[in-house]
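Weekly sync, protein design subgroup
Attendees: M.S., D.O., the rotation student, P.L. (late)

Item 1: inverse folding check
M.S. brought a backbone from last month's batch and wanted to see whether the design step gives back something sensible before we order anything. D.O. pointed out we never logged the input encoding, so this time it goes straight into the notes. Structure tokens as presented (397 positions):
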């Protein structure tokens, strides 16, 4: 018998088109195993009508049209009636979970919940830093972020924090909070059907999978979240020295990268054959490529956004039994054991990156095999089933 219905609302694109959707689906499966009926309400970029109903992973799902204009964007960030209408289709509503929902919508839904004895939780995964460019949209975004993070998240029953930084911030503000990293369903076919890794090779296979920057001319470098340029710059030095490697970049094309970093044109062309830009591919294809790589590699600047967030790519790499090369950010050092399931550096200057990559290239066959054995043995640390007890206690507080 169901314990009640949880309405999970936010900017996730189902079934697995962005990292938000992957987090929400993992959490929804966990909540379903506890005994709740979970309804997912996300967004859909290719939608012509106002909304669409679907079913994914056994969940009833509603997707609202992703805003394509300024007027539609204003409507989206103040949406209320759509969420209220969906809520009233169901009985015995236990709670709302807001996934980084715009503050204007969130505030009205909190008021609705309080009037109807419904619990409210905020699934908080970011502290977005708005660019300094002054325009109407950025002014609204700054107000939205401040209201959500510093006001409405303190009015909910509890906050589900993706990182230690957010967890501590809300604890220090006397808000009930649960630290919950991105989770996966390790029994999903995409994690178990790819077969052997076929990693036995003298060629070290690196992979980056993500959206490192906004693919908009003039904004890419300023918006850079992951420093793919630093990886390419360092690997170029190993390429001209004769090291054997392959670096697959998933999520952007060669043209996207060179639009952001035109000065890299010669280096990229000289690395033809060892530097492969895959562009956007399906999530299943990305996981398959991840599993067949020796290392997932990414580096991040030290900003509020990276402190408050948590890289889904870390969860996915560990779940794919693939070691990680990165720098210390957020609280990822709680999950990476240096030399066992990855390599951590303290900063992302060129010398540190080159030094850690040199260490990786110098590993002998036995050392590399030990890393692969350890990652395979410990790939379930982000399986949602590991967190059922903690989430149950928090949600039912």
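Designed sequence read out in the meeting:
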């Amino acid at each position: 018998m169901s314990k009640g219905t949880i309405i999970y609302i936010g900017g996730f694109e189902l079934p697995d088109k962005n990292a938000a959707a992957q987090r929400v689906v993992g959490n929804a499966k966990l909540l379903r195993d506890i005994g709740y009926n979970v309804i997912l309400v996300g967004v859909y970029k290719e939608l012509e009508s106002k909304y669409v109903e679907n079913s994914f992973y056994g969940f009833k799902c509603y997707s609202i049209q992703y805003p394509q204009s300024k007027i539609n964007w204003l409507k989206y960030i103040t949406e209320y009636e759509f969420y209220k209408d969906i809520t009233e289709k169901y009985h015995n509503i236990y709670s709302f979970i807001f996934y980084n929902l715009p503050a204007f919508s969130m505030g009205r839904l909190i008021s609705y919940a309080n009037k109807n004895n419904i619990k409210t939780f905020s699934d908080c995964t970011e502290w977005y830093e708005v660019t300094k460019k002054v325009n109407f949209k950025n002014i609204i975004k700054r107000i939205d972020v401040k209201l959500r993070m510093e006001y409405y998240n303190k009015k909910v029953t509890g906050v589900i924090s993706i990182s230690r930084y957010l967890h501590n911030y809300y604890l220090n503000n006397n808000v009930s909070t649960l630290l919950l990293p991105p989770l996966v369903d390790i029994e999903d076919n995409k994690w178990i059907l790819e077969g052997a890794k076929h990693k036995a090779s003298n060629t070290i296979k690196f992979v980056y999978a993500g959206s490192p920057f906004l693919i908009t001319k003039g904004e890419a470098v300023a918006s850079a979240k992951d420093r793919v340029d630093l990886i390419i710059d360092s690997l170029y030095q190993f390429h001209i020295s004769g090291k054997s490697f392959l670096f697959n970049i998933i999520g952007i094309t060669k043209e996207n990268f060179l639009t952001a970093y035109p000065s890299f044109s010669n280096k990229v062309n000289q690395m033809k054959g060892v530097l492969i830009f895959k562009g956007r591919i399906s999530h299943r294809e990305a996981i398959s490529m991840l599993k067949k790589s020796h290392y997932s590699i990414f580096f991040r600047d030290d900003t509020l956004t990276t402190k408050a967030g948590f890289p889904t790519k870390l969860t996915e790499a560990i779940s794919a039994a693939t070691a990680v090369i990165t720098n210390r950010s957020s609280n990822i050092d709680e999950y990476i054991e240096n030399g066992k399931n990855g390599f951590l550096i303290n900063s992302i200057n060129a010398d540190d990156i080159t030094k850690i990559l040199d260490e990786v290239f110098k590993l002998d066959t036995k050392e590399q095999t030990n890393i692969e054995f350890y990652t395979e043995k410990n790939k379930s640390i982000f399986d949602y089933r590991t967190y059922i007890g903690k989430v149950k206690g928090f949600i039912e507080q």
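Discussion: The first strand starts at residue 5 and ends at 10. The CA atoms of residues 42 and 79 lie 12 Å apart.
Action: P.L. to compare against the previous round before Friday.
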